[in-house]
Amino acid sequence: MIIDMHSHILHGVDDGPKTTDESIGLLKQAVQEGITDIIATSHAYHQQFHTSVDEINKQVSFLNSECKKLGIPINIFTGQEIRINDQTAHHLMSGEALALAGSKYVLIELPSQGIPAFTTQIIQQIMNQNKTPIIAHPERNRAIVEKPSRLGRLVQHGALAQVTAGSLAGHFGKTIQRTAIQLVEANLVHVYGSDVHNNSTRPFLFDKGLDYLDKCKMHENVDILLENNARILTNQEMILLEPNEIEKSKWWKVFS
Amino acid sequence: MAKKKKVLQQVARKLIANSNPTSFVSEQYRTLRTNINFSMPKGELQTVLVTSSSPGEGKSTTSSNLAVVFAQENKRVVLVDADMRKPTSHYTFHVTNTLGLSNLLTRQSSIDETVKETGIEGLHIITSGPIPPNPAELISSTSMDLLIVELKKRYDIIVFDAPPTLSVTDAQILSNKCEGTIFVVNSKETNRDHAKKAKDLLVSAKAHILGVVINNYKLSKDQGYYQYYGTKE
Fold this sequence. Notes:
The complex is a heterodimer.
Chain A: E1 3-7, H1 20-32, E2 37-40, E3 42-44, H2 53-70, E4 75-77, E5 80-83, H3 88-94, E6 105-109, H4 119-128, E7 132-135, H5 142-146, H6 149-156, E8 160-164, H7 165-169, H8 174-185, E9 191-193, H9 206-215, H10 219-234
Parallel strand pairs in A: 1-2, 2-4, 3-5, 5-6, 6-7, 7-8, 8-9
Chain B: H1 16-19, H2 24-39, E1 47-52, H3 59-72, E2 77-81, H4 89-92, H5 101-105, H6 111-114, E3 116-117, E4 123-126, H7 135-140, H8 142-154, E5 157-161, H9 170-177, E6 180-186, H10 192-204, E7 209-215
Parallel strand pairs in B: 1-5, 1-6, 2-4, 2-5, 6-7
Antiparallel strand pairs in B: 3-4
């Protein structure tokens, strides 16, 4: 069972696919990548995009029945990628925001420029509801790229983090790829998602990312990431390893 | 030039007393247990605090292994992760850290909810819980005193894993509340003056220092006598 826990496959709601056909195309692509279960996490409470819970439920059940009709062997689950604001915990409590596949795990997104000062409070508030926040693509956050140990602070407070397949595959450039590897090495990321938007500019790269980890001889990490993904669906506790210190890159190690 | 293999900076913390109980190291932990038992002949020693001068000297390793060997002696043991700044015990024992000491001290949960099984018979654990903004105040609060009284009724031995002494004041406060303090020294790393300073701090807090654990000590090769009696290398 291979699970993709971060994807934008619902059409016409955010910067994902525009039409139903594109959505179906993405799901076919997912099957080719070996994915058996996928969680649809459209943007929510983002400045430009907001997808309501009703819309997500409607589209997910529609896509599920459509896949059955067309014979695409994939299950789709509900979820949201929630951009954090001071109301996030409140939205989760009242059911205006969704956890991943009905589990206790919640996918949250930080602004790409930095880490807002209230992030730890939000994490605390979500944890008080017996839910666990998962920070989406920390390797693409500018503050964390600058200083990866900043994510360590959030993880120490009880948050988890998701690494994006495309970042590991080098789709977002060398710097982000390096940061992603650093975070995996330091045990600071716990789950693995594709963050797919479309087939051309933001494809799955699900296998490619895992291949890169294998190439870096991190087979154990691959197993743990995929196992943790599976545990979202079954709503189990994840395998967590103690975070390591991140070594500061030295200029004389440029060639190593 | 051949690329040098990177050495892991931090090897995963191991419960050697549980995974390999006949090893030489486990035997040393058992010696430590015996020494603690004899240091208080009347047997009134119930609370033990483990601390060191600076981070990374082996507090958590020592305290968790010590708790394991006490449990092997058929005692009811609870390990409390009182390091609410950089907690690690939930990684060592693979338990969740959603409820823990900080919840207990702020009266958000009961002891029954918070204490977790470890998979080792007789050993329970209280993890640190969510990191509070004021660990020192929580530790010095009256709810900490009440917690210690309550735990003493339920368990034979309570082992506290405290933060380092020199960097924060938590260990000083807690050592005053505990009946015995064990000081961990890393034989290669610890600065002599730092160790002395930390000891002075503990003495000024009226801590009862039971002794010092020398960690990471390298034995010379000819000390073959010290392998486990009755086993071959």
